[in-house]
Amino acid sequence: MSIDSYNPADPSDLVVSAEAPGAAGTTAAVERARAAQADWLGAGAAARSAALTRAAEAVEAHAEELADLVVREVGKPIAEARGEVARTAAIWRYYAQAPYAPSGELHEPAAGQGLLMTRRRPYGVAGLITPWNFPLAIPTWKAAPALAVGNTAVLKPAPEATACALRLAELAGLPEGVLTVVPGGVAEGAALVDAVDVVSFTGSTGVGRAVIAATAARGVPVQAEMGGLNAALVLPDADITQAAAHLAAAIAGYAGQKCTATSRVIAVGAAYEPLREALAKALADTAAGEPGEPSTVCGPVINEAALLRLTGALDSAVRAGATVVAGGSRPQRRGWFVEPTLLEDVPGGHPLLSEEFFGPLAVLVRAADLEEAIALANGTRHSLATSVHSRDLDTALAAADRLDAGMIRVNAPSSGVDFHLPFSGAKAASYGSREQGRAALDFYTSSRTVTLLPAGTPR
Question: pLDDT, tens digit, for every residue of 98-132?
């Protein structure tokens, strides 16, 4: 079976057709990675560090080629695609220093002579299952820490990001078996989960829960990132113009196809009317456009199924009594485009208030005060990122203490991640250890306690 990836801005453009190896081929790829792992670990810290540095240099040397590929394969606007390439190189460089980091601690024994030592060691082969929306950065922030600490890795990208994953691995230029890309779908993903020693997954909630169950049955460590229904709280004392600009970026940027995108805007008290007006204008200024144009912020959604899901939700909400404040239409151009859209008066119980639709569509909600706003923001099982907009630092910090989200951003868009800090959500948005930063190094290793006693010491 072949995996075919098409350009979402021009669905007639076939970007790549790659052969899927099936379950048996995936298992074979894992075994090749397992055979390569001892040499990769044994090469030492300097060799691993140098290899990851070379990967960063290769990404930088081919930056414009990679950015163009990201635009073509997943429809990311060119300015943001260039930013992702730069971030990808930076992540490789960041983890290139990790092989030199301490891998344990030294302790005194409770009594007598000797030493007690903790040491972190790699699991073996890491299985990485990644989405299409950050086709270079997410595979890198999973692979780089896994490789830095001595694992090898097998990557199963989303079918829609196959070309990006293959090119990334090719440019990385790592020894055979150290980083392997397995194009494919459900069969390859399931086989990967069944064969590797540690799993990192980013994708939908349904698939994530299946991955968690499969790894739990095997006793294999797993982390799973499964999206979020993210809220933005805007207080009456906020800089409304700035808040509207931040919200428009978080709603419409990359057509809302980020797990940290804002999908619920909660206006507190007197903030509602001025925010409504400012946000409608800001969204109108971020109209959907061709992703290759430098000025484009909102490109196409990834495929026809995504477009139909979004337009279906929009039509359903309007039929139920919601009002379109901004957007709500499809541009007359080929490709899977929808205008950034803001709705108000969406009735309680509508799926837009409880489910992630992964597109440039947000709901404006009223809250009488901060108490109600926090309750509304927390009223979801998928709490990944929340933004708070206020000039009062005390109020913002108090809200941050009470919000159920893995990441809270004050006077900033909900979208945006610092790769050197832990990344994860709360409740059903995430499972297992945090990603990124030093937390990733701990996830891809297990801790061992070693007791060292002088020869002949009685027990």
Answer: 999 999 999 998 888 899 999 999 999 999 999 99
Task: Look up the pTM and report it.
Answer: 0.95
Tokens of residue 227, six digits:
């999206």
Number of neighbours of residue 341 by Cβ within 10 angstroms: 25
* Annotation marks residue 164 as catalytic: no
Could you report the per-residue pLDDT of 340-378, keeping only the tens digit for each?
999 999 999 999 999 999 999 999 999 999 999 999 999
Instruction: Identify the active-site residue in 225, 339, 344, 435.
Output: 225
Whole-Å CA distances, 145 to 108, 122, 408, 419: 30, 11, 24, 11
Identify the three-state secondary structure at position 9.
coil
Active-site annotation holder among 259, 290, 298, 356? 259
Distance (Å, whole) CA 142 – CA 187: 21
Angle between helices 78-96 and 63-74 in degrees, nearest 10: 120
Query: Scanning the structure block, which residue is given the tokens 């080629």?
Result: 65
Domains along the sequence of the chain with CATH: 2-226+429-452 (3.40.605.10), 230-410 (3.40.309.10)
298 is catalytic: no
Taking the C-alpha atoms of residue 57 and residue 96, their distance in angstroms, rounded to an integer, is 11
- The rounded distance, in Å, linking the Cα atoms of 6 and 90 is 28
Strands 341-344 and 361-367: parallel
Instruction: Note the pLDDT tens digit of each residue in 40-95.
Output: 999 999 999 999 999 999 999 999 999 999 999 999 999 999 999 999 999 999 99
CB atoms within 10 A of CB 187: 16
Using CA atoms, how far apart are residues 207 and 212, in angstroms rounded to an integer? Answer: 9
